[in-house]
């Protein structure tokens, strides 16, 4: 019975307005209102009052609709191009999308004249049944901090309905009881925010490669008649530079009906020539500590493999004129200038230098850029590894902040050189007698009066025993002996540094 109930819901969600009105009229319920109101009534009918007669009627309407669609596709020549539907076309549910992609045709009916289809026209191609052309789907990039639990709405293009600049595109969906329980029973990341969330993601309509989140201009999101907050712009400190907007998944959980009632999400967007697609997902948001633990579990590279990589980096190239015998690696994280705790780098990086995984994940949790701080190249989470060799070195080398890898894969610490004194004291050779040397003051004790810098020591070499006057009196000699010895200086030319 549960399988039939799910099948009935899927078929009802694919009905058009006329089908919904016929179903509601069959059970005597009101047929007036907008499409999302009719869908809500029909789903409530299936949920609470799905009798065998009602289920039979739903199946009959479903088969009649797609039988007509298949017949029209065959009889029309050439087939009409696929056009975009109204805004209600966003109300698509992935659980029945597989049924829509293979509509039933009347090729199985016995009254078709196959020879007339294949034998009476040139090359037998002019009236072949049209093939169901499946367009490539828009894919969004995988976000490390969001694990997808369910896909509520596949990426669907926003289609303008008129020439107005502002467009409204609504979609309607219902959460299953399992999905409701997952949200209610999930833990709180912080007050008011559950770890299991319903998020809206918007990107460019481009099927060539997975797309990053990108908001259209003038975006506004309304959930069940209440506007949802959308991330604002980063302030720009540079003049003339437009502020950037962080395009992230928009959390709709707080405004959702966590019951069997249908939820209506309306995206208001600016129609300025670019095409955008929206998707709805049930996700489980992760924290940086959870991603770090996951990386430690599955992303550690064995020390021997890392040593092999070192040898490969330092392997001598016979065509190269310069032989590399070693490479230096810092044990300081380039992000926070602190000693590494969990050395990490991307497998796509060509360098051996690592950064700290703890701070790298915390920074990307706040502002996701996933750029290597060493080489500025992309370093996505799925490409990160923990260097087992450098982790081992960090535990063994406590007194050095830098090491050198040698060509054989071994390593040695590089201790920091002691800083030289700004005023080194050098021995000085003085040209003069021993008496003169004894009277010379130490170089460090002589300070010039200008700028407080050491001045040159000067000794008067003109003074000599032979130059004393023979006519000096004995009284003068007695007075001279009583006086304290005069400070004598040597000329700068008489000094010779031994440094």
UniProtKB/TrEMBL annotation:
Acidic residues bias locations? 473-482
Give yes or no: UniProt keyword Transcription: yes
- Span of the signal peptide: none
Q: From the Swiss-Prot or TrEMBL record, state where the protein is found.
A: Nucleus
> Part of which pathway?
Protein modification; protein sumoylation
Q: Where is this region: Disordered?
A: 441-499
Q: Which GO terms describe its cellular component?
A: chromatin; nucleus
State the top-level EC class.
Answer: transferase
Per the record, the domain of life is Eukaryota
State which Enzyme Commission number(s) the record gives: 2.3.2.27
Cite the SP-RING-type domain residue spans from the record.
318-399
InterPro entries per UniProt: PINIT, PINIT_sf, SAP_dom, SAP_dom_sf, Znf_MIZ, Znf_RING/FYVE/PHD
Q: Which GO terms describe its molecular function?
A: DNA binding; SUMO ligase activity; transcription coregulator activity; ubiquitin protein ligase activity; zinc ion binding
Domain PINIT, first and last residues per copy: 123-286
Q: By what name is this protein known?
A: RING-type E3 ubiquitin transferase
Q: Which organism is it from?
A: Xenopus laevis
């Amino acid at each position: 019975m549960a399988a039939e109930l799910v099948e009935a819901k899927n078929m009802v969600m694919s009905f058009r307005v006329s089908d919904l009105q016929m179903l509601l009229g069959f059970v005597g319920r009101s047929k007036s209102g907008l499409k999302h109101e009719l869908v809500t009534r029909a789903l409530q009918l299936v949920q609470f009052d799905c009798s065998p007669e009602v289920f039979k009627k739903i199946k009959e309407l479903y088969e009649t609709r797609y039988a007509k669609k298949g017949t029209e596709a065959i009889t029309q020549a050439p087939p009409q191009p696929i056009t975009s539907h109204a805004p209600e076309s966003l109300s698509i549910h992935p659980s029945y999308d597989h049924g829509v992609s293979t509509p039933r045709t009347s090729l199985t009916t016995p009254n078709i004249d196959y020879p007339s289809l294949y034998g009476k026209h040139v090359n037998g191609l002019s009236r072949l049944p049209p093939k169901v052309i499946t367009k490539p789907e828009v894919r969004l990039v995988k976000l490390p901090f969001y694990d997808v639990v369910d896909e509520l709405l596949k990426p669907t293009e926003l289609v303008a309905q008129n020439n107005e600049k502002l467009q409204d595109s609504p979609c309607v969906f219902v959460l299953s009881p399992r999905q409701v329980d997952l949200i209610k029973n999930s833990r709180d990341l912080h007050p008011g925010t559950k770890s299991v969330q319903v998020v809206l993601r918007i990107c460019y309509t481009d099927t060539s490669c997975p797309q990053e989140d990108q908001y259209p201009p003038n975006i506004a999101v309304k959930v069940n008649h209440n506007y949802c907050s959308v991330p604002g712009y980063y302030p720009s400190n540079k003049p003339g530079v437009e502020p950037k907007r962080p395009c992230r998944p928009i959390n709709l959980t707080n405004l959702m009906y966590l019951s069997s009632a249908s939820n209506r999400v309306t995206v208001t967007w600016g129609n300025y020539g670019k095409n955008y697609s929206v998707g709805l997902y049930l996700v489980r948001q992760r924290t940086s500590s959870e991603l770090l633990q996951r990386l430690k579990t599955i992303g550690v590279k064995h020390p021997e493999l890392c040593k092999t990589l070192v040898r490969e980096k330092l392997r001598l190239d016979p065509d190269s004129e310069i032989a590399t015998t070693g490479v230096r690696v810092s044990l300081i994280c380039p992000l926070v200038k602190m000693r590494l705790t969990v050395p990490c780098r991307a497998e796509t990086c060509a360098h051996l230098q690592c950064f700290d995984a703890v701070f790298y994940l915390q920074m990307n949790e706040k502002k996701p850029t996933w750029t290597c701080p060493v080489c500025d190249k992309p370093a996505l989470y799925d490409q990160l590894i923990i260097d087992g060799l450098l982790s081992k070195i960090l535990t063994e080398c406590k007194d050095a902040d830098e090491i050198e890898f040698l060509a054989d894969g071994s390593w040695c610490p590089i201790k920091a050189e002691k800083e030289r004194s700004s005023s080194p004291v050098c021995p000085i050779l003085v040209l003069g007698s021993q008496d003169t040397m004894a009277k010379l003051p130490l170089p460090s004790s002589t300070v010039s009066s200008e700028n407080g810098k050491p001045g040159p020591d000067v000794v008067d070499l003109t003074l000599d025993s032979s130059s004393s006057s023979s006519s000096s009196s004995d009284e003068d000699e007695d007075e001279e002996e009583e006086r304290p010895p005069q400070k004598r200086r040597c000329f700068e030319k008489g000094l010779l540094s031994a440094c």
